[in-house]
Structure formats: C-alpha cells, structure tokens
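Risk register update: the risk of archive-format incompatibility is retired. Evidence:
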Amino acid sequence: MELSSFKYASRQLQGQILRTPFVYSQTLSELTGCQLFLKFENLQFTASFKERGAYTKLSRLSPVQRDAGVIAVSAGNHAQGVAYHAQRLGIHAVIVMPSYTPAVKVQRTEHFGAEIVLAGDTFDEARRKAITLAEERGLTWVHPYDDLDIICGQGTVGLEMLEDVPSLDALVIAIGGGGLIAGSACAAKQIKPGIQVYGVQTEQFPHMVNAIKGTQHPGGRTTIAEGIAVSTPGQHTRKLIEQYVDDLLLVSEGEIEQSLLYLLDIEKTIVEGAGAAGLAAILRYPDYFKGKQVGVVLCGGNVDPLLLADMIKRGMVRLGRLARLNIAIHDRPGALAKITQIIADQQANIEEVMHQRAFTVLPAQNAELEVVIQTRNRQQIDQVLQALQQAGFPATLQNHH
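Archived output:
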C-alpha cells in the first residue's frame, strides 16, 4: 500500500471524523521514562478509531453497492462506526450481532439507524449468519479489519501522529484483527523508515503474536480488552504486520486495568481495556522505550460504567488506596469503638465493616472483623496495621492484588 493511498484517505476523512488531539503527557512521561504522546481516538463521535475505516470503505462504494446496502458483524466499535457513517451517507446498514450482545450496545447501534440482527451464541455463528444474509440480499460486506480500504482508513491514525510530531521514535498500537496497526505501521514506515512500531496484545488473546512469532501462548476466553479479543488474525493485516511491525508485546489483564486507571486519574480520560493496552506495554517493557519519543494510541473509550467502577476499585487496591483488613477481637463492648478510633488516628477512612461471629475459626467469645479502609498509599496501610497490633488487635492485610 502506497503512502499516497493513506494521504488520499486522510483527505477523504477531512470534515467527516475528528482529527483527534495528539498530546504530550508530562506526568505519564515521568512515570514511563520516555517522552509520551497520546493519540485520543476515544474522542471520536462513536468513541473509537473504527469510524476511520468505516467511512473510508463506505465512501468508496459504487452507486449499485450503495443502493443495495452493507452488512457487518460486530458487537462493538465497528458496528457503531459502520452504522453511524452509513446513516450519514444514506446507506442502509445491517449489523449482525451475537445474541449475547448487551442491550445498551444494541440500542446504541440501532440509534444510528442500522437494522440489527441478533444471531448465534458465538461470534463465529453470527458471522455465518451475516455471510448468508449478504448473499441472499446482495449486501456489501464491511469487514472489521481484513479489507484494504478499512486498513487504509485506520492507517490515517499513524499518518496524523507523524504529521503532528515528526520527531517520534516509536509507535505503540494495540492489535485485535490488526487493521489499525497494519495501516499505521505501513504509513509511518514510508514517512520515516527508522521509526519503530510495536504491537500489543493481551495475554488472553495472543493469536496474532502466535501467528507471527510461531509461539504457543494458550490464551483465555475473556478479557477486559474485548475490543482486541480477536481469535482469527486477518490475512492482509498479518502480511503488513510481518513487513512493517518491529515487535509484538503481550500484557496482562492487571496491567491493562492499572493503565486504564492511570489514564483516568492522570489524564482525566476514559478508555476501554483495548485503549489502555498500549500504555500497559510501555509500563511493562520500559527498556524498549527509555528516553525515546513514543506515540501511543488510545484507540477506544466504550467501557461499561459498571465494569469501569469495578476496575477503579481494583486499581485503588493495587495503588494502596483501598485495603481490606482482617482483625481478631475479643467480642466485648467497646472493642469496635477502639478499633475505629485507632484507624481514625492514622488518618485512614473506614469504607465498610463486616462483623463475623459465626463463620470464624477463632474461639468462642471472639470475633473477626473485616474492615475496608481508604488510605493514601501502602505506607499508610502499614501504619494502620502496626497501630492495631500495638494496641493488641492482631490484624492482617487481606488484599488479593
């Protein structure tokens, strides 16, 4: 794919999508040891870079294809990108979603005027249904990543990053099917051949890493980075990644969670799990990026609020801002009051108390207290534990992170 094709796609996208900010983060730079620039694709109207490929593909359809309509299979960002831009261009869009797709995602996609078909208990079953419908109704297939027009549209992310900061040494981009990194790496290497491009996958879905490196990472079934939970690498994307990407890195679920919290806490921006994967890689492999100018793509911001709340809590535990203590007490009047006073004296705040008499291995007339406290850091947790133990209350930390 020639650089001119990415530049042409970029011109087509002007006024159709947001040219997202590409911003230096001073605090995250200090944290990671590199000069870190963030590409805020989570600020697109449908909160994901997927709009770029969707618009590029749809705008290039022939009049006959436009009249017949298009079809896509997706439970996430691709569905919304296709539905939104199809509506804007006056093209009928059919979106096939697995039957387990959360109602909020169905409603959001319907809101953009798409016809929703719920089919199959797995993504592959939904895909088979989409293929059948496409043949029956003469619909044009809009693949989420393995399509040269889609790749071309997504590659404008890499183009914009180097236009804004030509001195970049490296790009870090999450990989699901590979459309974003394939296009961005292809464009970036033609502009600046010496630039390094790193792809990132979650350990739960390492399929592109396995395909390209010949590794046998087992993977899992679920991930908080569902935007990159792709089991079948694309053929076009794989070839481009093999040609233009320097290395592929794996990150854990916990590292993604932690990075998501850093972005929320430091940059005041909400990303989904996939959107935090790039930062997670930079934090896990600091020697790759030390002292370099690095661009990372915050590729999406569609995260379920309840999942976000859970991740914030878990992240607070990791940072030592939330702790669960197990305290053995003699079950007599005033014991609980003394414990709460000791915790207050250490300037910690009690969030939750559970008083357990029956379900404990302690002798009768003793009880077990489970206390969740809010703290500033791990040092303060240690101070609370020490103060309790000095006062005769055996206390242990019960965190699992």
